[in-house]
């Protein structure tokens, strides 16, 4: 026991036994492990072979082994598209690492999937409640599948004895009758039927709840009755809230995934917030290589070319990447490059055609035309989109006259875009293979309904102006759609709008003929384009204006973009309008240039453009500004935003100098951006010539001493900090959490105090 390698040798032995799934240890070894545990040999969880030093009863080991075997089989294959035979592929063969970041605390860092519930180097214990956010199709569910599979196969996280992965989609199908947490677990995982109440309390347990955004539970944290016993019966909603709050199995860990808009459903504070960002450029190539082998390079080269840049950007979404690759794999061999899809709408149009052609190859008897079935699917897509539903029931299908069993036999179209799944109690539920497919079919249904009957299905939406039926043209539909989108929450109708505009174009109308649609009369886009230009000019909410530029791209209008590029080439940007600044943001975002350094002074009018260029500032890693007082609040908001967690360097040098109508050397008081609440997201911050106040030093000290501070380089040159400010700042520098490596300051008092204390 006195040997220096004593403890690590024991962990090695334990690791070997675990990897080989030994069901029992020899009796002396069991007692020895118990002895070590009670004598408190200290070891940080997550190190030393990734296994906990804990005695496991034979019953726990037996249940654990059976659960692992079940989950290993359940998670070994990944279904791409639908779950019909032949659509699955080995998870380990196709899985591509996702870019996941830890955020929400002001300190962004990349985090490995298998470390998502482990303590970081500076943390004493693992996070008990973890939230992972990400947009639809970004890979949250696949990440959960991979995490579970790695645990089940013994590849990672063996310090966890039991993992119970649930989906809110499955939980929704449970009838609302009281049950216990133990019953809820064993109903879904019968492999642990033999676990006793004491086994749950003594084991390390992780509950995973995937898809909070799909939850139909009220999650009433305030009014649900408390529940502390896993055999006590309660509603499923009450079980969930008590488990998340830590009343039930208070030592258990909880991992929840969700789309960002639904994160607020849970008011409980999370110990860790992460975000799935999807694929970076290297991962896009890796995925294509795994999926298409020799064809991968041709597909990637096509997407990286200037004409298809916007499509390549969207490929950070794994599901979109799959759809694009599926289409290009089919088209590249037989289609000239100038006829390949260049817009998102064209890509989805070809995807729909490919599914229809596959149906024809099966030579099934035609019970209904392709158009009839697609319109039924479109009606379902639109009505459920209006309700905010991604999941729907058999009754929802029947309301749209869709017989899925018949459709599965007679048309490949339906089964290729709708997923059929079974819930916990074998209740069938359905969804489109991805939200974007639902949005595409909804747009097609709305446009075709208007073309055939002049009925504007968007008329019932709030904020939408509607003309009388006799006066309606497709322009009125377009304007209604723009109004609906601009009034919607968190971009809910953004892609629908792009699809609607794209489907109105002659090229896509010609493609629709291939699946039985009659092309509409060709009309000029000028009125629609003019309407969008007016909206862009008035818009201050930048993300919405960027989406309108994507819509102009679908309409084939590049006029604003071309004017901005002309200004850039001439070097004269002093006379461009607000709409042109938004166009500049769009140009920079879709350019193939490395988004590394962005210097606002190159564009002369920092005050006028900052708000419209916020999306660009989010994308660049190094930002240089020269601002006046008018812009300080904008920068405060920007620094406070978790959406710019990739910012590494921010330069606010010479704030307020030389701006017309603004006094020189305007004070920048950092209380404006609340840096004391752990939101300094950059690692390099220059505050040269900012005439910092004493309160600013207090906030800086608070930020430097924050456990989540990421600031490593701070420039305070040419600021008269005064004695009180220097002392406040020094208190932050002394903190053990301070990560600062370089401090620039011309104030000798600061360095004198540092030298005295050293």
UniProtKB/TrEMBL annotation:
InterPro entries: LRR_dom_sf, NACHT-assoc, NACHT_NTPase, NLR, NLRP_HD2, NOD1/2_WH, P-loop_NTPase. Residues 128-262 form the NACHT domain. GO terms for molecular function: ATP binding. The keyword ATP-binding applies. One of its GO terms (cellular component) is cytoplasm. It comes from the Eukaryota. Pfam families: FISNA, NACHT, NLRC4_HD2, WHD_NOD2. Keywords: ATP-binding, Cytoplasm, Leucine-rich repeat, Membrane, Nucleotide-binding, Repeat, Transmembrane, Transmembrane helix. This is NACHT domain-containing protein. PROSITE patterns: NACHT. It is found in: Cytoplasm. The chain crosses the membrane at residues 12-33. Its main location: cytoplasm.
């Amino acid at each position: 026991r006195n040997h220096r390698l004593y403890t690590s040798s024991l962990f090695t032995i334990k690791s070997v036994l675990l990897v080989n799934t030994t069901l029992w240890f020899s009796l002396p070894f069991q007692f020895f492990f118990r002895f070590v545990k009670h004598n408190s040999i200290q070891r940080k969880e997550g190190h030393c072979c990734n296994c906990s030093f804990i005695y496991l009863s034979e019953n726990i080991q037996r249940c654990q082994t059976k659960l692992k075997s079940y989950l290993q089989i359940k998670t070994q294959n990944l279904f791409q598209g639908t779950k019909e035979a032949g659509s699955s592929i080995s998870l380990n063969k196709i899985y591509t690492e996702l870019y996941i970041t830890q955020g929400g605390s002001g300190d962004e860092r990349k985090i490995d999937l298998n470390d998502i519930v482990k303590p970081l180097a500076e943390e004493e214990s693992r996070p008990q409640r973890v939230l992972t956010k990400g947009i639809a199709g970004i890979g949250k569910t696949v990440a959960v599948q991979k995490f579970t599979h790695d645990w089940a196969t013994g590849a990672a996280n063996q310090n966890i004895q039991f993992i119970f992965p649930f989906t809110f989609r499955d939980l929704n199908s449970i009838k609302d009758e009281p049950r216990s947490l133990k019953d809820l677990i064993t109903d879904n995982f019968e492999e642990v039927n033999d676990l006793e109440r004491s086994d749950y309390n003594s084991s390390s347990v992780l509950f995973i709840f995937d898809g909070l955004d799909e939850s139909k539970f009220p999650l009433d944290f305030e009014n649900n009755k408390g529940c502390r016993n896993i055999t006590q019966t309660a509603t499923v909603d009450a079980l969930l809230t008590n488990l998340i709050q830590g009343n039930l199995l208070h030592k258990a860990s909880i991992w929840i995934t969700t789309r960002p808009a639904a994160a607020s459903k849970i008011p409980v504070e999370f110990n860790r917030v992460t975000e799935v960002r999807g694929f970076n450029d290297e991962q896009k190539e890796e995925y294509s290589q795994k999926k298409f082998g020799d064809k991968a390079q041709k597909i990637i080269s096509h997407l990286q070319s200037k004409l298809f840049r916007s499509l390549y950007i969207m490929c950070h979404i794994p599901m979109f990447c799959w759809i694009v690759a599926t289409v290009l794999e089919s088209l590249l061999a037989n289609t000239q490059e100038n006829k390949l899809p260049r817009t998102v709408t064209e890509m989805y149009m070809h995807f729909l055609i490919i599914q229809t052609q596959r149906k024809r190859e099966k030579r099934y008897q035609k019970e209904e035309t392709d158009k009839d079935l697609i319109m039924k699917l479109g009606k379902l897509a639109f009505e459920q989109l209006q309700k905010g539903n991604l999941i729907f029931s058999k009754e929802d299908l029947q309301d749209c006259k869709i017989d899925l069993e018949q459709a599965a036999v007679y048309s490949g179209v339906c089964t290729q875009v709708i997923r059929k799944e079974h819930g916990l109690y074998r209740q069938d539920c359905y969804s489109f293979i991805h939200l974007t497919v639902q949005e595409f079919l909804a747009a097609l249904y709305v446009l075709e309904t208007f073309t055939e009957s002049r009925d504007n299905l968007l008329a019932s939406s709030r904020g939408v102006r509607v003309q009388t039926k006799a006066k309606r043209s497709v322009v009125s539909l377009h304007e209604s759609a723009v109004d609906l989108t601009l009034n919607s929450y968190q971009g809910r109708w953004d892609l629908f709008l792009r699809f609607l505009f794209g489907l109105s174009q002659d090229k896509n109308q010609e493609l629709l003929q291939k699946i039985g649609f009659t092309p509409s009369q060709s009309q000029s886009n000028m009125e629609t384009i003019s309407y969008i230009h007016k909206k862009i000019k008035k818009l201050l909410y930048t993300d919405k204006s960027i989406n309108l530029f994507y819509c102009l791209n679908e309409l084939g209008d590049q006029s604003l973009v071309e004017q901005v590029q002309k200004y850039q080439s001439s070097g004269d940007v002093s006379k461009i309008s607000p709409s042109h600044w938004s166009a500049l943001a769009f140009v920079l975002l879709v350019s193939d240039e490395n988004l590394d350094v962005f210097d606002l002074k190159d564009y002369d009018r920092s005050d006028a453009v900052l708000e419209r260029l916020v999306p660009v500032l989010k994308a660049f890693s190094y930002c240089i500004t020269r601002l006046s007082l008018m812009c300080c609040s904008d920068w405060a908001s920007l620094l406070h935003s978790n959406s710019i967690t990739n910012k590494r360097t921010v330069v606010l040098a010479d704030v307020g100098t030389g701006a017309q109508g603004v006094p020189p050397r305007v004070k920048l008081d950092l209380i404006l951006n609340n840096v004391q609440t752990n939101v300094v997201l950059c690692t390099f911050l220059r505050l040269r010539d900012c005439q910092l106040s004493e309160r600013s030093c207090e906030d800086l000290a608070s930020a430097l001493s924050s456990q989540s501070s990421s600031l490593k380089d701070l420039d305070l040159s040419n600021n008269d900090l005064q004695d009180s400010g220097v002392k406040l700042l020094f208190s932050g520098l002394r903190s053990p959490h301070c990560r600062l490596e370089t401090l620039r300051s011309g104030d000798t008092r600061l360095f004198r105090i540092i030298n005295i204390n050293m």
